[in-house]
Amino acid sequence: MQIFTCPFCGPRSETEFHFVGDFPKPRPDGMAKVSAEMWSDYLHNQNNPKGAASELWMHMACHEIFRMDRHTVTHEVTGSYALSSEAQS
Known about the structure:
10% helix, globular, 1 helix, 40% strand, Sarcosine oxidase subunit delta, Folate-binding fold, mainly beta, two-stranded antiparallel ribbon, four-stranded antiparallel sheet
């Protein structure tokens, strides 16, 4: 079992977390004409890199969404950050 660190609650079992998606993943501009293909790509396709990745995760106990930096091969977590403007850089 792996331990992930929620920036709000501290270290917890990986079973308490849910993967949300890539970070950052800009949403298509809703004010512009967005094709069905663009929405499909946004909703269903993930980067899935081999190596370092920034991802959005939800801690199911506190329902907070945060950024986690981790290595997708070794599963080493290098950081967990609240989604505030200073933490996203």
